[in-house]
Hints:
Blueprint: E1 2-3, H1 13-17, E2 20-28, E3 31-32, H2 35-49, H3 56-60, E4 70-78, E5 95-102, H4 107-112, E6 114-123, H5 138-144, E7 152-159, E8 164-167, E9 171-176, E10 179-183, H6 193-201, E11 204-207, E12 219-224, E13 228-236, E14 242-245, H7 250-263
Parallel strand pairs: 6-7, 6-13, 10-11
Antiparallel strand pairs: 1-5, 2-3, 2-4, 4-5, 7-8, 9-10, 9-12, 12-13, 13-14
Amino acid sequence: MIGAAAGWPLDDRGAAYGDGLFETILVRDGRPRLWDEHLARLARGCHVLGIPMPAEHELAAPLAEAGEGLAVLKLTLTRGSGGRGYRPPADPAPRLRWQLSPFAPQESRWEEGVRIRHCRLRLGIQPLLAGLKHLNRLENVLARAEWSDDAIAEGLLCDSEGRLVEATAMNLFWQRDGQLETPRLARCGVAGTLREALMERLAIAEVDVGPEALLAAEAVWVANSVQGAWPVVRLDAADGQPVGRWSLGPAHRDFQAEAHRLLGYPPPAST
C-alpha cells in the first residue's frame, strides 16, 4: 500500500532531480527494527540537503497499518515542489510518501552463502553526500544492470580511485588476520543502519583498501537492515572468472548471529 496520496506531481523535485532521501525499514509485527538508526540517518540527510525533518509521529504513522509478520516500510521524503530549475525554493514544503509491503527474507542465502561479483562501474566521489541514502541512485541502477544471472546475489563497487566502497544494495564486511573490517565511507557510499549498529557492538575497523584486500580475507559478508547478513562463498571478477572462494565456518556464523539479533532473525545454523 502507498500512503499520503499516491503518485508524484510532475514538478516534485525528488522525481525531477533526486532531491530527497529515503529509508527502507524492516518491520516485525508492527515494530520497526533499527528505528533510531533510521531516524538518525534521515536527520543527517535532512541537515545536509536543507530539508525540514518531519516529526517522528509523521514518520511512524504508517506503522499503524502493519499487521503480524514481516513487512518492509519505505519512507520517501522530497523537498517538494517549487524553485526554478536547479535552484531550490527558499522555503521548501517537503513531501512525504510511504509504501508498506509484505516481506520474506531469502533464508537459503543465510545458510548456503552467496556468490557475488565485481562491477565495472565506479562510484563518483562526493564527500558532502557520503553516507546518505539520497534519491539519486543512478550509479547503483547501472551497476545492477551489469548482470542478469540470478545465481549472483550482489555486485561490489569501488570508487573512481579504486577503493572498495559497498555492494549495490548492501554494505561489505570481511575478516582479515582476525580483524573485522569494512570500507570507510567518507567519500561516497551509503552508511547502512545495520552497519551502524554492528559498529557500535563489534570491533570493526573502517579501512581504505582496494579489492585485493578481499583475497587475504578469512571471511566475507554483504549485509543490510532488511536482508540481514549473507556470507560470501564465491567472488567473481567483472568478466565472470572466479577470483575468491570461502568455505563457511564459525567466523561467518558469529558475525551473522550478531547481525540477526539486531533484526530479530533466527541465528544461523552452525557450520
